[in-house]
Amino acid sequence: MSLQEVLSELDGFTVEVPSWAYGNSGTRFKVFTTPGTPRDPFEKIADAARVHALTGLAPRVSLHIPWDRVEDFGALSAHAEEHGVGIGAINSNLFQDDDYKLGSLTHADPAVRAKAVAHHLDCVAVMAETGSTDLKLWLPDGTNYAGQDSLRARQDRLAASLAEIYAALGPEQRLLLEYKFFEPYFYAMDVPDWGTALLHCQALGERAQVVLDTGHHAPGTNIEFIVMQLLRAGRLGAFDFNSRFYADDDLIVGSADPFQLFRIMVEIVAVDAHRPGSGVNFMLDQCHNIEDKIAGQVRSVLNVEQALAKALLVDTEALTAAQDAGDVIGAHDVLMDAFHTDVRGPLADRREARGLPRDPMAAYRASGYAAEIAAARVGGTQAGWL
Amino acid sequence: MSLQEVLSELDGFTVEVPSWAYGNSGTRFKVFTTPGTPRDPFEKIADAARVHALTGLAPRVSLHIPWDRVEDFGALSAHAEEHGVGIGAINSNLFQDDDYKLGSLTHADPAVRAKAVAHHLDCVAVMAETGSTDLKLWLPDGTNYAGQDSLRARQDRLAASLAEIYAALGPEQRLLLEYKFFEPYFYAMDVPDWGTALLHCQALGERAQVVLDTGHHAPGTNIEFIVMQLLRAGRLGAFDFNSRFYADDDLIVGSADPFQLFRIMVEIVAVDAHRPGSGVNFMLDQCHNIEDKIAGQVRSVLNVEQALAKALLVDTEALTAAQDAGDVIGAHDVLMDAFHTDVRGPLADRREARGLPRDPMAAYRASGYAAEIAAARVGGTQAGWL
Amino acid sequence: MSLQEVLSELDGFTVEVPSWAYGNSGTRFKVFTTPGTPRDPFEKIADAARVHALTGLAPRVSLHIPWDRVEDFGALSAHAEEHGVGIGAINSNLFQDDDYKLGSLTHADPAVRAKAVAHHLDCVAVMAETGSTDLKLWLPDGTNYAGQDSLRARQDRLAASLAEIYAALGPEQRLLLEYKFFEPYFYAMDVPDWGTALLHCQALGERAQVVLDTGHHAPGTNIEFIVMQLLRAGRLGAFDFNSRFYADDDLIVGSADPFQLFRIMVEIVAVDAHRPGSGVNFMLDQCHNIEDKIAGQVRSVLNVEQALAKALLVDTEALTAAQDAGDVIGAHDVLMDAFHTDVRGPLADRREARGLPRDPMAAYRASGYAAEIAAARVGGTQAGWL
Amino acid sequence: MSLQEVLSELDGFTVEVPSWAYGNSGTRFKVFTTPGTPRDPFEKIADAARVHALTGLAPRVSLHIPWDRVEDFGALSAHAEEHGVGIGAINSNLFQDDDYKLGSLTHADPAVRAKAVAHHLDCVAVMAETGSTDLKLWLPDGTNYAGQDSLRARQDRLAASLAEIYAALGPEQRLLLEYKFFEPYFYAMDVPDWGTALLHCQALGERAQVVLDTGHHAPGTNIEFIVMQLLRAGRLGAFDFNSRFYADDDLIVGSADPFQLFRIMVEIVAVDAHRPGSGVNFMLDQCHNIEDKIAGQVRSVLNVEQALAKALLVDTEALTAAQDAGDVIGAHDVLMDAFHTDVRGPLADRREARGLPRDPMAAYRASGYAAEIAAARVGGTQAGWL
Asked: Which NCBIfam families does the UniProt entry name for this protein (chains A, B, C, D) (predicted)?
């Protein structure tokens, strides 16, 4: 693909940003705060909109319920629209209620399960109010000790709970089910891998799709293989992008292994899944524990775009020829040629041509926005995970 | 379950041993040889029969084609029968032909794929001659470098190849498909995880089942969870038991983490899958690189039996009560009570009552069999992986 | 060693419990609370004393500063003594001050480093007041992004900071330096492995020793090897015992891999390091996120004692004979014989003979203590990590 | 550093290539052969010289004894010189003798240890004949089963064996000791980590240095941290470069994680260790199981050079300023700027200016050398690991 074609392929590509990335986050050891952190969903959306204004890449914001619960979601949607962005997926929360200590949708007690299901019906109501089509469900349930509960019974309960939730969705709405290897439980997670997520989605129906969070795998897992496999099975609903070295580190996507991000985008491009209408929602799910949050989001969406541009640059004809010829190094080199190409200049040119800053990071620093919100957002309680 | 009930539950339980465990094996660095190593399938079966004679646990021997190809499989079956054992699963080999350097059932060249498919039709013919009902297929295919080949195209070719093989099976025969995380390829294996194996089995039909090799997972993977999940999906066809600390170490099952083996058997017992007729074939797949091979096999089948006995000992009533009460430590302790119980005495008593040695390891050492075969098996070429 | 000798070897063996295990803990997602959780160090010590009363194994309590700061440490020591226990190691805290966002003893800003050093001088003062001889320092410092800071400069600053702290210790006091693979930082920890801890201890002097937390290693790490190596180098100062499946899960020691705990104790016993005066402080460092905290501690110290008893049971003469003969399976079997032996009965007998409950877990449940503290400890703020 | 300065810093930089990379290698499952594979050390050196002729980067060849034993090492040296290269490190072999099944320098039997020590004295003799100054010792010893041997006794024997070897070295000669996490043994390697290697080097003396093989670590290990730490301790003697996804995959360096290779070179550059005289020997240790071997080596040395050039490009002034200011993303971005820069053009220009091919990979393909050696090297036994 020529550079010009590559750049035009980027036109419809967008990244959805999470409202919670603008709030405080941390580890179990400490949550550091920063001046200017949003106090409510309106301020989070204002920050997210700034990311879009700087990059042209991030027109949607995921909400998290109950963190982003407001009295009037219509007002929130309007606020978003005014700021140039829209509401994206609705994320449920199954990890912060005292009742969920031993499970939520999998809990042995039917009353707890009913409560967890009801929470999702609330989320579906929010979807109606915001026009959101994606209900994203990460199941944090699991156990810490062998024997603590029946692994199998929990699957059965989960299947029944999910069926109730799925039944509440409209025909244009999807259930996005996310798996995670470990944390917050350490012996067994109830949806630990893509195979488990897939089995549940298969049981539910076609509008149940799998979410791949790039930080939710065992060490050494080939993530682009799973991307390919879920696409092949027609079940890749969304990404939660981030970076990791060890566990679910939730670092800026592309910061730990930019080559892996590129390889993932190569599998995306192979079936045109980067194009609007592919059904794959490219989302971030990150924690800016120690770095500036807005800058961190800007850097993240730029990293995704850069990886996509490089993936589009791969000379697929030469690649296929080398592959068919069994030329191992030759085929690998075709891929690496694209990866080693510096696309930052053309991407800056493209931004400029679209009326965006050539260097969004510098533009953000120069904008004074950080100082502005630090001065304005005094008092109140900063938003965070808890 | 009372100890008496536990012991009676063991009656139908068997472990299938692999013919190749009696031959030489090693690492890429060195294959050490030992006096007395079998030179042909007849001698392997004689050794395997000795394991059964000592333990009463191992009445079947898996064959590997072409390693165990003989002119007259009827004679081999008769030889086995004379020695008190039978022929079990037929294992194909897709990793030792020069044509398979870049793949076998997934190869870009249709001629190579056809050759690999034809090899399985040969295996099906062997099944007819030996009465075997299980065709076990471990796909060693994969790639070493990103870009080397299309991950997706390889899946498509694999699906087509598997369909041809599956079509050749009789109505009483099964295809057992084994996944592996890595090795002998290091960038991407073509069937790296249970999810991929499951998707292929689903596409093939009900007699396609997954093989779980306990050494074929990413670090930290909860294997008993996968056992439960495959059982729940009706797709657990067989185990390849062994132990690992790091990779596919192929050590004696139960030697690296006896508690894990116990937890696996707990999931088996939960649905009575240890009983004959469950459809789960409990097989060993091990390499005795430095230890005595026959002793290693005796130790292995004893370890599996011990883990099963402990799993049967779990006080399921107390366990369920503690689980339902949300008593985390209480439930865990019920499980641990069974694990900490020393069942070696009762198992020895049971062996004695069945006319078997109380201590099969000591009986083997005392038997002089090792010296006998070392003296007898002089000359010829020792059997091995290559 | 005869069972009688084994039991007598247990006499001087003790486990130190951490005050913070009795407070609330959790993950970054949620800290669940429980009725009866201590509100202050006095109540924590009361709970810890209960563990000792039930087991006879846990006569010392580690303190954590500032969590356990009280106005009058003499009063706290007296309170401990009244309850039958004493004060153990003093643990510093370098992860909860806003100034430490980018580092403490390694921070680029000398003022922050000075503050962190001064905190340790405070801890040394507490040691004087409590009679504690061990200053335990876990360095949580690290970076999240490549380039964020100079890895090398941080080592240099750390070395200088540690030298100041070490200089403040009295001749009978030790600095115990703990390493950790990852968390709370995800690109590079500043003391990530035993090699780094050892280099710093060597630079400091003989009273600087390494702390091995069983949850602070890369996947697959052979921990008993490190135990052996640090003992051989004369630098194993202490354990922080717990269990893990994935990361620093901080589960009940012995719950995830009882065989590993046994192997660790085998290395301990090999050089009599279980005996008082060996200089190895056997401590717990655990989080009882979802289980009863006191019961969790009771279970933990019992698990350590059980592993030690089994390690003492190893027939070392037979083991050495098999090892010298190159009898791989024979030597392994000698070890496994000890592991498979059920020592719970003799340990219960021993407890009974010492005036302790045969079954401390049952005795704790029967005691009504949980209900008692739940009723008594109403109001106030429950102690926790934060 | 300006691009011009960067390019001039490359002038003295060299990579040492291993003779064995030109022979056949494989996995335990299969060693694939290729036409043209060298049959003896002379042909290996001819191939290695071709890599140097194409790249100007690889003027030395490591030998492996006994694989590269010849009657007249003077003739081999002269042959190398004629081809424009020299002899580098001498590598010993402790993994292919039947006597070493249970250990070599650590073996319980003094006769086996003496044999292994004597082999190193032979290697020292080869060093005298070839002018080599580096004796590289990778200890493959280890155990497969807990209890198989005493971990501690093996350390003691190893220390004594190493002392004998070290004593045989001349004042200008070094002992380079390499550690490895696992393989070919699976329970415990006797030198599994850099801490163990360091302790032995410290005990031996200043000319004992550690070898860091990039494939010999636990999953997730931060390798550049170890590079920094060994440099800081004055003990980094050499690299064995390669790439890995899972275990010791021995893939082309830079193919699995080019960003990691860059980060390693950043630590090298920080103390000018890329310059001649630093004492760090940059070696490859790879296996070209399925790809063209010579092309694989060319690609490898180019990848190392590219990573070094990028590391030199880092704007250290800006980096330090951002680090000192606590600007997390800013500092990270400075590093990433260098990584994202495409240096292939300037490196090609530099090659051209030095009379080398702009594109060594294409030049190799165009040279017809592969066909030439395939035609010439008919008959005889291809060199390989075994």
From this structure: RhaI_grampos (TIGR02635)
